[in-house]
Design brief:
Layout: H1 2-12, E1 14-22, E2 25-53, H2 64-80, H3 85-104, E3 109-140, E4 143-149, E5 155-163
Antiparallel strand pairs: 1-5, 2-3, 3-4
Amino acid sequence: MKIKFLIAVLAIGTFLNAEMVKVTEQTAITKPFTKKVKTGEKCYEDTVEQFVNCGSHDTNTIGIDTLLGATLGVVLGHQVGRGSGKAAAKIVGGLGGAYMANQNRNSNKCKTYHQVTRCDPVYEYITETVIVGYKNCAMYKGQKVCKESKSPLESLNVTQRVYVH
């Protein structure tokens, strides 16, 4: 049975014949590679707007604003109160107006400007040629056979198929 199978494979089979062949020609395969390189900085002066408290931080002093607030509070209290409550309304209005005017002194915001130095990076694009592999060639039975690889090869493994019909 084994002999019939072997004869059948020989009659219609494929044979592989492998040989090592010395490389006669190598060519580097290159590819351009562009990279971004920081070469320095470009600096410039810039004006920055900033809001700061410009009111007095002293809330214990009586200023014109406090007196005006107290006066307006008394006038409004006089309009609201009736009878014996009128005096209480004037007192509450005067105190409330003085307090609000005094607090308003601290919430005043003023614009201020100052100079700052800002720097932006400066880049240059550099293109380099990089070796990405090798084309290794050899002569095999009068034909040039080539194979690409990541590193140079000393020999190629050439496989030849022989068809038998």
